[in-house]
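Structure tokens please, single chain.
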Amino acid sequence: MKKEILIILVLLTSLISMHAANLTSPPISIVPRPAQVVPGEGNFTFSSQTLFSVENHEQAVIVRNFINLLKRSSGITPQLAIGGSEKSHVCFTTDSSLKSEAYQLAVTPEQIQVKASDIKGFFYALQTIRLLLPSAVEGNRQVENIQWSIPAVTIQDEPRFGYRALMLDAARFFIPKENVLRIIDCMGMLKINTLHFHLTDDNGWRLEIKKYPRLTEVGAWRVNRMDVPFYFRRNAEPGEPTPIGGFYTQEDIKEMVSYAADRQIEIIPEIDMPAHSNAALAAYPQLVCPVVNCYIGVVPGLGGSNSGVIYCAGNDSAFTFLQDVLDEVMAIFPSRYIHLGGDEAQKGYWKKCPLCQQRIKKEHLANEEDLQGYFMKRMSDYVRSKGRK
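Here you go.
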């Protein structure tokens, strides 16, 4: 019995000692949590003498972005060598045995070794280093009296999910370009690889389409109902001023796409159809069913019955318009996917519309639900014909 008590006391003493040791060294906290983290001894400190060694120009691009981030807040400008260097402090090495996006990071007080099989893995390793640095690294001005160090650690990491996305709705509430760029930067830091960009809805059209300028001249702006919550805002009356809104030029979008690509992020644009289209139809009302007799304006809130105003599925001009729009969308967004929406399409006007009913008869469709299937298939086939999904 005494022997068993002694063994228990020894085990408890060991556990207490381990807990005390953990309290003396701060925990390594990274979001998202890497697959494997093994703490080491000591710290690696960045300085103007720190030398990054990379294998090629592609790696150099992401390292320069990291150096610029560090320089902005610390005033430190590490050096960069392309092609390898025996004296390097941060060394990039390609390891083809690792999966895409995976990386290995070995930090000692003397050196940082980074291994990955592709540029995505190297980028994510740098983001982990970014998260290990003092939080002041995210500031926009130089901070004094900070030790720009990271703890010694060995990390092996790979994503659990291949598709890691944020959906950003700039249609209902316009988000200035500078804010979008900051969001993209934070996405990259958190290893999110897809931005789903909701650019059109009843409440606003946010993308410049050169062939149809009224989409942003009219569709990007709405009446001021900011004094009441979104759900209770009454719709616009003819002739009311429309000061609330904004849009992105195609040059703005190209900048966002390039900025996102540097951070290993794909931007998927969403052009909603056949519903959630009041902003577009306010600009081009000839695309609605001829039985619509209400005023069509950009909706400032939930929309009420106006949300039932959608593209006319019997009007070939609506398909021509949407194909033209998608041509410009696909020219500036290189993403594999183009999101066409397809949700919440009320069929009240389609049921009354002679053009829609004629389409149902001509295509041998059973009803208005099948008519939406026809509508979406026709647009989906067009996207696929351009090599997209």
